[in-house]
Design a protein that fits this description.
Elements: H1 3-16, H2 21-31, H3 34-61, E1 91-93, H4 101-109, E2 116-118, E3 126-128, E4 130-132, H5 138-148, E5 157-161, H6 167-175, E6 180-185, H7 188-200, E7 208-212, H8 219-223, E8 227-230, H9 239-252, E9 258-261, H10 265-271, E10 282-284, E11 305-309
Parallel strand pairs: 1-4, 5-6, 5-8, 6-7, 8-9
Antiparallel strand pairs: 2-3, 9-11, 10-11
Helix pairs in contact: 3-6, 5-6
The structure holds S-adenosylmethionine.
Length: about 300
């Protein structure tokens, strides 16, 4: 037996030793079944398509500053809600689409990124920096298209509100069969990055497109979308604008559309103190492709919410 075999067996035994008899039996029958082989093939396919997103991420790194924030942007830590503890001293932007956990660890080892900041100079009194990401991670994006949304999105239009570097758009392009994928982004430099990537990777411009605009000026696009994805906007809009945007979405997103957000809508609307105006607007939906949950560490995605607009 090679050293590698021993190591793999060690890892498996370590895992199995935590299981009770029933769990062990169920795993045994899964491994001896046909569905295990199919699951394994599908997992490999997912890993392969993730590599494509890695390539896109590497191309974007060449176009944006290390912190992936543009000098033309006004990014301000929110004063309300679950990110109100963020400020210039304790917070650092590490874009999850560009840098996954492994890459972050490497950057820290190379001294290019710090995890801590000093609370009190010359002492060991340090605290952990808060890492926030303005983009969704590759894994979260796969989870959206492979677990949450229906498998068949043919004839459906996907809209990413505030598409930034384009992470959601590329995932929709490669992980779904959506017929139209549109990003609306108010920052011109971010739009330029997305256009360059779409061109560089020869994506079909009849299917994927970026529009430089404030979303509130494009009600036509909101009204024609079937799937609307909104990553939290707290760092980019002030409280009044944020409220206006939700009233705008309530007015223009059509009934029956899917809305996906990476924070519960109850939390977002309660923090803005407008929850009561949105009662019965959304119905929480269960994932459409539950059979694919096996490919993901579900706990990592508890912050992704799928709603149907009522
Ligand atoms: C948190 S980032 C989301 C990036 C991307 N959707 C993702 O999940 O990877 C929010 C983006 O929304 C943009 N944004 C904020 N308000 C907007 C508005 N009213 N219209 C268009 N874009 C907006 C910001 O410029 C920023 O790039």
């Amino acid at each position: 037996m090679s050293d590698e075999d021993v190591n793999i067996k060690f890892r498996l035994l370590d895992l199995f030793s935590d299981l009770d008899e029933n769990e062990l039996q169920s795993i045994e029958s899964w491994i001896c079944s046909r569905s295990y082989k199919e699951d394994l093939e599908n997992k490999k396919k997912l890993k392969k398509s993730e590599k494509l997103l890695d390539k896109i991420g590497d191309a974007i790194k060449k176009l944006v500053p290390f912190e992936a924030e543009m000098s033309s942007e006004q990014i301000v830590a929110p004063t309300i809600g679950d990110q109100a503890d963020c400020n210039k001293v304790n917070t650092c932007h590490v874009d999850e689409f560009l840098y996954d956990e492994k890459q972050v660890t490497k950057l820290v080892q190379q001294g290019k990124l710090k995890r801590h900041y000093c609370l009190d100079c010359h002492s060991r009194n340090v605290d952990e920096l808060i890492f926030i990401s303005h983009s969704m991670s590759k894994q979260a994006l796969q989870y959206i298209f492979k677990v949450l949304l229906p498998k068949d999105l043919g004839e459906k239009n996907v809209l990413d509100v505030g598409s930034r570097l384009g992470a959601v758009l590329y995932a929709a392009y490669y992980f779904s069969n959506a017929s139209k994928i549109v990003g609306v982004e108010m920052n011109k430099d971010c739009c330029d990055v997305q256009d360059k990537i779409i061109g560089q990777f020869n994506m079909d411009i009849n299917r994927i497109k970026v529009i430089h605009s404030d979303i509130m000026e494009r009600q036509d696009i909101v009204e024609s979308s079937d799937i609307i994805i909104i990553n939290v906007l707290d760092f980019f809009v002030d409280i009044e604008k944020h409220k206006e945007m939700w009233y705008f979405f309530k007015k223009h997103i059509k009934k029956g559309s899917y809305l996906i957000s990476n924070r519960s809508m109850a939390d977002t609307l309660n923090t803005l103190d407008i929850y009561e105006d949105f009662l019965n607007w959304l119905i929480i939906s269960k994932p459409n492709q539950l059979e694919n949950e096996v490919f993901f560490d579900v706990e990592d995605y508890s912050e992704l919410f799928l709603y149907i607009v009522n």
